[in-house]
Amino acid sequence: MSSENGKLLPETDAGGLNFEATELTLGLPGESRVTSDGVAKLGSKRGFSETVDLSLGDNKNTNKFGQSQIDVPEAAKSPVSKAQVVGWPPVRGYAKRRTKSCKYVKVAVDGAPYLRKVDLEMYNTYQQLLTSLEDMFSCFTIRNYLSDKKLDQVNGIEYVPTYEDKDGDWMLVGDVPWQMFVESCKRLRLMKSSEAVGLAPRTPPKCSSAS
Amino acid sequence: MHKKMAFSFPDEVLEHVFSFIQSDKDRNSVSLVCKSWYEIERWCRRKVFVGNCYAVSPRMVIKRFPEFRSIELKGKPHFADFNLVPDGWGGYVFPWIVEMAGAVPWLEEIKLKRMVVTDESLELIAKSFKNFKVLILSSCEGFSTDGLAAIAASCKNLKELDLRDCEVDDLSGHWLSHFPDTYTSLVALNISCLGSDEVSLSALERLVGRCTSLKTLRLNRAVPLDKVANILRRAPQLVEFGTGTYAAELRPDVYSDFAGAFSSCKELKSLSGFWDVVPDYLPAIYPVCSKLTSLNLSYATIQSPELIKLVSHCPNLQRLLVLDYIEDSGLEALASSCKDLQELRVFPSDPFGVEPNVSLTEQGLVAVSSGCPKLQSVLYFCRRMSNEALVTVAKNCPNFTRFRLCIIEPRTADYLTLEPLDVGFGAIVQYCKDLQRLSLSGLLTDRVFEYIGTYAKKLEMLSVAFAGDSDLGLHHVLSGCESLRKLEIRDCPFGDKALLANAAKLETMRSLWMSSCAVSFGACKLLAQKMPRLNVEVIDERGPPDSRPESCSVDKLYIYRTVAGSRFDMPPFVWTMEDDPSLQLS
């Protein structure tokens, strides 16, 4: 995967920030903006039971140093666990202490030069996982320093969360019951929706916008 | 060697004298006395310590110390433990193994921390060092059980295999069977990091049975309680033991088997493990508690009453690691039962929860500081703190060498006065004159750094997060802390001025980490230009730093002194400042 090699994508340009993705959104496949020719690679899988609309790189979280930072009030929105600042509190292998097993998987985002890891055992639902990914990759915000304008969501690039299961197949996240997903997921990849053609389900899911 | 002095000793005598000097610092001092001492010392140094694997090259080490038998290497910066260092950053041990395989065939010990170790590296170790004895991998990753199998199969003289906190790819539990039946020299085995499929129990039992010198055994959580008794019975001489997982319900037959096995272990001093421990099983270990000096309960999700009962059976406890389930009441009990306590670590059971889930506050820390006169090392996670408490703790414990406080919510003020915690931490550095390591948290202004710069003269490592107001804070630390070796900073408003004004200081330190601060790319370039013996590395996932204005802050910065020049193994998201063509001026 190009993201793992760290190769810069065509939109990155040394002459200035021509990143198109200043506002990245994660959406589960099946959303109206995802190109879909209705071909379901995963014919045997069911449609989605929930649709989540996520925004990566929400500009209002930047602090005065131009750095992305999680606002504490934002964190309060998530009732079960705080939206996490990466690496804080400084606990190691935290999940190993609390849960029976620790399920660390690597997360690659197309366009990001390096991977992160999440512990799937720390979440109870897809929503929690995806919210956490959104926070984790919020530093992926590419600010347009030259014109200092914020691109609105319509022009943002959407990402589709996918995962590789124990059989080595790439599946759409949200396909199977949560616990089954945790057990079979080997790694995650947030794929650009343009590349996710072929992974879209047959049945259109319900759309709910949560931005 | 020139015998200019009337009373100089022959080399052999000096060598014999030096053999009593084990610490690196002392050996380094010895080597600076004169050229002949340098020469003698370098030929007889048997243990080499390299605190930053990129500070020096393997060839340089081998050239200077041709006869070493033990090497300790550290790789990634400490903040890698908290996911702040991206995968692929570096810290590869393979180049070191390659060089040593050829030049140091009698190598006996390798100790690595935060390094990437591949199966290939392990296989090379297994076949290159005929007298290999000790492999300690701490917080390492990159290898699988295949690599372990190679070590087991080939290292006939292996004494220690310790994989503490490593991430191991699980492929098969059969690696343990690769220890030949004739192999009996194991003294220490720590496999607590391995997962469920990675240990064959029957192979483990046989191994433990035939290794009669085994003193340390730390099992992984996949070893169930009923198997633990079998293993313990085969090793009544154990001094350090880490249990596997405890079954969920109490079964009397398992319990009595377990209790019986435990009571036959008369030498036990250290216990750990306790995953999923059910309180009803705890009495099984009471018979050994009176001799225990070290207890690691950081995986034990038991509540305060059971914890109180347990620690009250351990009057000789020197080291306790525990979850905050112990609560203030448990810490008060600890303070009255364990007068020999030297080290305490209290971890959060629910670090990401919004509300406190346990009643653990500054009171617990104050109680222990008051009741345990030998307390030297503290790591404490809590949700509230006051200056008053910190001042009390400081006065109670002037002997602190390590004090790490983590108030979970960033920038939390003194809950009583709503003021910053500057005065509290100021008291810590003022009263604890031997403090070597300090981690700050809570609401802190530049003032705390003024205190630190003024008083913390023995401080070697400082961790700072979400603190300070301006460059003055960083300047106080860099200009005042004479013994500072490692400084790690995140999310602080420190920028270019303090860094550039104290550039020379950085060469007296091992390393500086700054992430989410306000250091500009231009300053990084300038620093690298001024200080050629520093590697100034920028980690930034937004693309090359020169694609943005020079005044733009870098995401992460890692600066370290080195005599080996820029490293060759940087991933695409790490930039060194050396290659910048604009540095060609002046």
From TrEMBL, chain A:
Matching InterPro entries: AUX/IAA_dom, AUX_IAA, PB1-like
Keyword Lipoprotein applies: no
Domain PB1, chain residue ranges per copy: 102-193
Protein localization: Nucleus
Keywords: Auxin signaling pathway, Nucleus, Repressor, Transcription, Transcription regulation
One of the GO biological process terms: regulation of DNA-templated transcription
Keyword Nucleus: yes
GO cellular component, one term: nucleus
Alphabetical list of Gene3D superfamilies matching this protein: Phosphatidylinositol 3-kinase Catalytic Subunit, Chain A, domain 1 (3.10.20.90)
Pfam families reported in the protein's UniProt record: AUX_IAA
Primary localization: nucleus
Subunit structure comment from the entry: Homodimers and heterodimers.
Function comment: Aux/IAA proteins are short-lived transcriptional factors that function as repressors of early auxin response genes at low auxin concentrations.
Family, per entry: Belongs to the Aux/IAA family.
Protein name per its UniProtKB record: Auxin-responsive protein
Species whose genome carries this gene: Hibiscus trionum
TrEMBL record, chain B:
Full protein name: TRANSPORT INHIBITOR RESPONSE 1
Localization in the cell: Nucleus
A biological process term (GO) from this entry: SCF-dependent proteasomal ubiquitin-dependent protein catabolic process
Listed Pfam families: F-box_5, LRR_6, Transp_inhibit
PANTHER family: F-BOX/TPR REPEAT PROTEIN POF3, PROTEIN TRANSPORT INHIBITOR RESPONSE 1
Pathway: Protein modification; protein ubiquitination
Organism classification: Eukaryota, Viridiplantae, Streptophyta, Embryophyta, Tracheophyta
Chief localization: nucleus
Residue ranges occupied by any F-box domain in the UniProt entry: 9-50
